């Protein structure tokens, strides 16, 4: 059974403040938290060829009318069982998709689109439940940096061997 954990999320499902807007000022750029949290997983099913991650905030729909995509990662090799802190900005990291941070919504309109290709941490006005989905896939999607969430979902369709979700509360 696929299991996802993170030392950045405690037993009460609270996410460490460091990884969001209540963290240190030097971890912010354009008002967006920069440092991605570490993740660890185990129990990949037989036949796994790669992993994908979707970090999404469905509670944002109540605030801005849409779920907020914070991080997309594809084509993580099957022999990998975790990613370290700040991996999103490390040279040679796996393909990352566009987050919602560089959309035309509100104050984020001035952020360069390529900036959205990395982790953008939580910045809610109230507590939100953030979902971190890990998918074990029987394919390597072959996506390139800058893909959209719909590209990842289409590439995964019919290829998800198992999925698991870790919820982190922030705000």
Structural account:
With 171 residues, the chain is mainly β. It has a single domain, classed as Phosphatidylethanolamine-binding Protein (Alpha-Beta Complex). Helices cover 8% and strands 30% of the residues. It is built from two helices and nine strands; from the N terminus they run βββββαβββαβ. The strands form three sheets. A four-stranded antiparallel β-sheet has the order 6-5-8-9, with helices on one face. The protein has a three-stranded antiparallel β-sheet with strand order 1-4-7, with no helix packed on it. A two-stranded antiparallel sheet has the order 2-3. The protein is globular and about 40 Å long. The model has no long low-confidence stretch (mean pLDDT 94).
CATH architecture: Alpha-Beta Complex
Mean pLDDT: 94
Low-confidence stretches: none
The CATH topology is given as Phosphatidylethanolamine-binding Protein
User: What gross morphology would you assign?
Assistant: globular
- Structural domains: how many: 1
Give Rg in angstroms: 15 Å
Broad CATH class: Alpha Beta
Outline the biggest β-sheet.
Answer: 4 strands, antiparallel
Helicity, in percent?
Answer: under 10%
CATH superfamily: PEBP-like
- Count of alpha/pi helices: 2
**SSE pattern, N- to C-terminal:** EEEEEHEEEHE
Strand content: 25-35%
Distance between the termini: 30 Å
Structural class: mainly beta
Report strand order across the widest sheet. 6-5-8-9
Q: How many beta-strand segments?
A: 9
């Amino acid at each position: 059974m696929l299991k996802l954990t993170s030392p950045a999320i405690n037993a009460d499902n609270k996410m460490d403040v460091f990884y969001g807007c209540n963290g240190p000022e030097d971890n912010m750029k354009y008002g967006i938290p920069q440092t991605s949290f570490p993740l660890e997983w185990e129990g990949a099913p037989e036949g796994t060829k790669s992993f994908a991650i979707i970090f999404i905030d469905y509670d944002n729909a109540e605030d801005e009318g849409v779920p907020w995509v914070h991080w997309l990662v594809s084509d993580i090799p099957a022999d990998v069982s975790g990613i370290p802190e700040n991996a999103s900005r490390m040279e040679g990291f796996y393909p990352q998709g566009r987050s919602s941070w560089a959309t035309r919504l509100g104050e984020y309109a001035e952020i360069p689109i390529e900036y959205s290709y990395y982790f953008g941490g939580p910045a809610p006005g109230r507590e939100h439940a953030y979902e971190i989905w890990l998918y074990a896939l029987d394919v390597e999607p072959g996506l390139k940096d800058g893909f959209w969430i719909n590209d990842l979902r289409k590439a995964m369709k019919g290829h998800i061997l198992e999925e698991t979700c870790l919820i982190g509360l922030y705000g």
